[in-house]
Write a structure and sequence with these properties.
With 97 residues, the chain is mostly helical. The chain is 79% helix and 0% strand. It contains four helices and no strands. The longest helix is centred in the C-terminal third of the chain and has 31 residues.
Length: 97
């Protein structure tokens, strides 16, 4: 079953880590409506699922911490995407100079 899910781009372990991170994010202080909380969870899970290997590869992160990256992407959601994009392009700019 897991192989079939991977064939369509779904990585269960990354999704679970992203889900856990999303729960941490929505439990931090602010009161969210159900709609916003659901959106934040979906964004966190999607970020973790689809972007973990991109971040691991582009930032030369050791493979052993990929689930930690997935968790962080879940916590950070859309802000995490922006953070890693900034880091990646900043490091690429520094190497091209």
């Amino acid at each position: 079953m897991e192989e079939k899910l991977r064939d369509v781009g779904l990585h269960i372990a990354y999704m679970v880590a992203g889900f856990a991170g999303s729960l941490v994010a929505i439990s931090k202080g602010a009161q969210f409506s159900f709609r916003k909380a659901f959106f934040l969870i979906v964004c966190g899970v999607a970020s973790a699922n689809y972007l973990t290997m991109v971040v691991v590869t582009l930032m030369n992160v050791p493979k052993g911490i990929q689930f930690g990256i997935a968790f962080l992407l879940g916590v950070l959601g859309l802000n995490g995407i922006q953070f890693f994009i900034d880091k990646i392009f900043k490091s690429n700019d520094n190497t091209q100079s």
